[in-house]
Write a structure and sequence with these properties.
By secondary structure, the protein is an alpha+beta fold. It contains three helices and six strands; from the N terminus they run H-E-E-E-E-E-E-H-H. Strand 5 and strand 6 form a beta hairpin. The relative contact order is 0.19.
């Protein structure tokens, strides 16, 4: 097991979704979602933009995909954790209640064990449904 995977507190899963990064200065940047966890996402950006680790504020991630057979949209306020070329890792800092319900269902379905989901929920860095910073819309 690699040192990185040993440090991870959250399981990551591929999720077939259309992604869009919303920034206060660059507008809307399409992105490919590489993986998703209850606490963050890894994306490949269509265009290279200036994202410094630790940047948050106006950054939002919008994902549109299917969870449990239903078309859903999830919106998250995010903070940049790392950037490597056009690949960026984000940590969620706020997720609205409906989006969190979809995210939780997606993670639960992929984990297959409710006790693992409970463990991940206790390690969250944000509290679902409580916004910090800019509005999620």
């Amino acid at each position: 097991m690699s040192q990185l995977s040993e440090r991870r507190r959250f399981h990551r899963f591929p999720f077939d979704a259309q992604g869009q990064l919303l920034t206060g200065d660059s507008g809307r940047v399409p992105c490919e979602l590489l993986d998703l966890s209850i606490n963050g996402a890894l994306v490949r950006l269509d265009d290279r933009i200036d994202l410094d680790p630790g940047r948050s504020g106006e950054l939002k991630l919008v994902l549109r995909g299917h969870v449990r057979g239903d078309q859903v949209e999830m919106r998250m306020n995010i903070e940049t954790v790392r950037v490597d070329g056009r690949v960026a890792g984000f940590r969620f800092v706020a997720v609205d209640t409906n989006s969190f319900d979809h995210l939780r269902n997606f993670i639960e379905d992929n984990l297959g064990d409710i006790s693992l989901l409970d463990r991940e929920l206790t390690n969250l860095d944000y509290w679902p449904g409580i916004e910090s910073g800019p509005d999620l819309n």
